[in-house]
Amino acid sequence: MTLSHLDITKLSSIPNIKTLLLKAALKRSSYDSQKPSDVSLPKDKLYYDGYVLDERSYRLYHQVVDWQLESEIIHPCYLHSLAFPLHIMLLLLPDFPFPLLGLVHVNNRIRQLRPIKNAEKLAVSSCFEQLELHPKGWLFSIKVEFYSGSELVWESISTNLFRTNHSHEVDPSAKHSRVPFISPINSPWKLSSNLGRRYAKVSGDFNPIHLTKLSAKLFGFKQHIIHGMWTKSYCISTLQKITPSLFMQPFEINTTFKQPLYLPNQVNMAVQTFESGSVYEEQYFKVVGIGANNEQHSLHLLGNIRAT
Question: In whole angstroms, what is the distance from residue 176 CA to residue 178 CA?
Fold first, then answer.
């Protein structure tokens, strides 16, 4: 399903993210498991044209995700954090059917058409995109677009899963062929217990499952987990060190979030590059847990990046 004839709401300001998250925690679901065929997404589109990039905010974000490119270039995932309040506003719409607690971010695609610089004034729009059945429930996506003037410079699709039983027969998604990682570039990471709290402060995502072991246990986790978007952000920072030229041109980066990444932890990021002549055309990467004897297990993230 693709939404059309959207109702556009132009925002005069962005609400406080903590207020939005409190409302999200209190929002009741209208989902009726007995009537799964009645499920639909709101046809609202939110628009805000007043973003002026704040130097202190993006520098703090860059520190947490280890972005070391020259200071005037903004990390590609920083714009995702700017748009996060719009995500929550869409989820808070009265006719959004699913409960907010328990939604799982399963895929994220970012397409950046050129580097974003710190002096730019940006406009952003956000709306629901796709709704489809999944063997474990429902998948829905949120689309975000950033503009500099009339120029589209960045867009993303974030796909989320609402787990539930439904009465529909759904074929399992076709499994993508795994790319062999032959002599990959390896980057070991050591993740501290407070990493989720640090990232929450710079991204606005204060979901309790990321903050402390105690708060995560309240939602069924044995301990707190790092945000999927931090993992993607750190992957991008690592990729930029390997192939800096890739981030100075249009590119697309896709990630699928797999098993939760508990904190504290040690993991390895493996990067497999494919090149034509002296130009890297595509890179595949994965984040995998490291066992006691340096065995790799627990796949946490799969992704690929390519020039467009």
Answer: 6
